[in-house]
Each structure stands twice: as structure tokens, then as C-alpha cells.
Amino acid sequence: xxxxxxxxxxxxxxxxxxALSNKxxxxxxxxxxxxxQAFNAQFSFVRTASESSAPSNNDLQNLLKPxxxxxxxxxxxxxxxxxxxxxxxxxAISESIPALGWVCVAPTPGPYVKEMNDAGQFYTNRVLxxxxxxxxxxxxxxxxxxxxxxxxxxxxxxxxxxxLVWAGKNKPVVGGAxxxxxxxxxxxxxxxxxxxxxDVSAAGAGDDRSALFAQINQGEDITKGLKKVTSEMQTHKNxxxxxxxxxxxxxxxxxxxTKSVSAPSAAVAKPPSFVRDGKKWLIEYQKGxxxxxxxxxxxxxxVYMFRCENSTLQIKGKINSVVMDSCKKCSLVFDSLVASAExxxxxxVQMQVLGKVPTISIDKTxxxxxxxxxxxxxxxxxxxxxxxxxxxxxxxxxxxxxxxxIPEQFKTLIKGESLNTTCVESLG
Length: 428
Known about the structure:
Elements: H1 2-11, H2 13-24, H3 26-51, H4 57-80, H5 87-96, H6 109-119, H7 121-131, H8 136-159, H9 202-216, E1 254-255, E2 258-259, E3 273-277, E4 280-284, E5 292-294, E6 302-306, E7 312-319, E8 321-325, E9 331-337, E10 340-344, E11 347-353, E12 359-363, E13 366-371, E14 380-384, E15 387-395, E16 400-405, E17 410-415, E18 418-423
Parallel strand pairs: 4-6, 5-7, 6-8, 7-9, 8-10, 9-11, 10-12, 11-13, 12-14, 13-15
Antiparallel strand pairs: 1-2, 3-4, 15-16, 17-18
């Protein structure tokens, strides 16, 4: 049950995080109290959703307000304590606590939590770096928080994969009426006209089959029962027959039982955009632009490139991560990343890293060329449902590359009660 699973997070990893926060004390402990209140508020919200049907928008805002207020309080606490010796701790929580907003995200709430977890990674890495030689409690604290959000993501993946589930049936949300049922879909084709059918009873069917077999057993004599077509019965010899009723013809609006649908009009081209929204750089609908440059970005920034074609993006400096989504024939050049480079639903794209990148993720992409630097040879490449992926490994200092394809074909054998999967090399 989703409520019990959420409670497991509160009693498990979150409780461990709170205990470590109290052990550190000071500003960290005070902010942790706000974090606890935020999770408790969301727990009440999830419990309400498990017992109720979807509310109206106004009621939904009222239900979300306790969680939203706690998130704002956590972020304000960081802003009021900028001189704190634990400012990196406070910032790590402040940057990633918006993960609790997953209840308003659809259809990918799980990846949203991961994105928020990554957003706080810049500061958790600082905590790990600054305290690993001083006090192991701070190291455990940072890992406990990361694990808390990771388990939240797993919880969402299991119980609310495409969005918050309102599990109640015709039961109003406490404090407000449930949302009205959706209107019936419009534009559905009417059922096709029924052709007149004869009696198809089981007994009749049996008699018909007997008669059919009897006729077949006649052999060559079966043709004797055929009726001769005279010249008076042929329309090309008897024009008067052409004035008779026309044979049955299905209505023009219906084909094979479905309504004919006109071809959709061409999608309206959206204007290109290149904007910075807080920690996010949004680059969308660029076409034929080879001069896209992200400069003056910070290490906690994220770059999102969407539906661009025949364009090149260069990212100067070190940022958190970059995502290329639904792009065609685009190139990406960047210095270094803290987290990962992701390619989703792309076609014929290229990337080149000049510094270091820990992870490259490729999903539903056809054609991805990855040029690595000497510092990025420890990269982890994760691919799924993709093809034509090649890794270009630097060869010495000459500037040449060795091309290595990522396997696309696999062979799976059954070994007892388990599976053994290996790559299949192309012999062509």
C-alpha cells in the first residue's frame, strides 16, 4: 500500500537523516525540524489521496498548502543564515527540497525527484569534501539525505509512476468536493450501418453445413445445380437493368467500420528561445543555429535543449548536467559536468567533452556519437532502446580517435532459474 510505503521512508532513511542532523546540531538541526514537518505534511496529503477521489483545483491548492509552506520555510531558513558555518548543509537541503513537489508533476514525477536530488549534489559534494577528514558524521549526513530522496524516487516509481494516484472511488476529499467526471469524448464516429443478417442459430448453422457437404460430395455434378445467366440478365446486353437499385455501398464517411479522418494540419512552428530561468537554461526550437553558447553558468546549473535541429550548443565552464531532448542533427560541446549528459528521443546527435563527465545516459535515440577526452575515460554510459551509438576514444596525443560501437544485439540463455545475457558481435 502506498501509504505504508511512504511511512517506511519516514521511519527509515528520513529518521536516520534527522538523527544525524540532531547530532550535528545548530542550524542543521533547526532546518531538519522543518524538513520533518514538510515530510509529515506530505504524508498526510498522500494518505488523503489514497482515500479520496481527485479534488477540484481550488481544493488541491488547499491540500498542498501545508507542504508548500514548509518548503518555503526551509528555503527562507537558508537565506537567513548565509553566514552559518553549515551554509553548504543548509544549501544542499534548500536546493533539493522542491523534490516534494512531485505530487504536482505528471507524467514523470520520479525523474523530477532525481533532478532535484542532482540540483543539491553540488552542495552535498562540498560537504563530503570539507568534512571527510574532520568529522564522519557530516559525511553520513550528506549520504543519508541523498538516500532519502533516492528512496522517495523509488517509492514514486512503484506507486505513482505517471503521477499522484487518487485511489478513492466517489469519495470526496476532506474539505472539498471531488472533481466532476470528465466530459464524454467528442468526435467519435457513429457505428457503421448493420448489414441484414440471416438466422444464425446453432441448429440452422448445422443444417447449412450438412447441405454444404452434401453438395461438395456431388463431385462434378455440383455444376448442374447452377442457374444459367441469360443475355436478358446481363447489364451490358440489357440497358434497362442499369436503372434498377444500386448494390449496397458503405457510406463514404466510413471505411472498414471507422470514420475517415482528414490528415492533420501541419504543426505550427514555435519561435526559438534561449532563456535562463534560475538554475535552468532552456534552449528550445532552435533551427540551423551553430552559435549557441552558454556562458557564466554555475556548477549547480542545468541546461535543457529541446526540439532543436541542425544546431550546435557550446557550454563553457563546469555545470551540473545537460539534457538533449527530441533533437535532430545537433551537436553538443561542453567542458565538464558534475552529474550527467542525457540524450532522450534524439536522432543523429553528437557530443564532445573537453574535461570530465561522470555519466552519459542515452534513451530512445538513433545515432549518437560521443567524443571523449583523456579525463573522461572513466565515464559510465547507460543506454536503452537506442541504436547507432559510437564512442570515440582518444588515441594518444595526436588528436586521433578510435571508434568503438556500443552493442545493440544481445543473446540470452536460460541457466537454471536465471538468465545469462551476452553481447552479440556483428560479423559484417
